[in-house]
Specification:
Structural class: alpha/beta
Number of helices: 4
Strand order of the largest sheet: 1-2-3
Largest sheet: 3 strands, parallel
Order of helices and strands: EHEHEHH
């Protein structure tokens, strides 16, 4: 599914599924018969109580370039979704739209963001 010279983007939410996806991709990159580049994106949605520095520290520890995009989609969703309804669907759509609207940079332009 990944061809030689492809660029693959992993959008990291901070959930165990995105950590797993990244781990699989990192392992595949080491053993794949093709060469490809990967880009990591994380959208900081400004959700109250979310530990914002955990994911950047993890990615820095792996030594992989990544980009944190900040946008308060949480407030938008809270305003639009009726009380008692699930927020997940709209949060996912906004997160996907925002992460894919930020085109991957070339490898030398990606830079890890230092924790505050």
């Amino acid at each position: 599914m990944i061809a030689d010279c492809d660029r693959v983007m992993v959008c990291m939410s901070g959930g165990k599924d995105s950590y797993s996806c990244l781990d699989i991709l990192v392992s595949l990159k080491r053993s794949a018969p093709v060469s490809f580049r990967s880009h990591r994106r994380h959208l900081d949605q400004k959700q109250p109580g979310f530990p914002a520095q955990v994911l950047p520290r993890y990615l820095q520890g792996l030594g992989v370039p990544f980009r944190v995009i900040e946008q308060d989609t949480y407030s938008v969703v809270k305003r639009v979704v009726p009380q008692g309804r699930t927020l997940c669907g709209l949060l996912l759509a906004l997160r996907r739209g925002r992460c894919t609207a930020s085109p991957p940079r070339t490898h030398h332009q990606d830079r890890a963001r230092a924790p505050s």
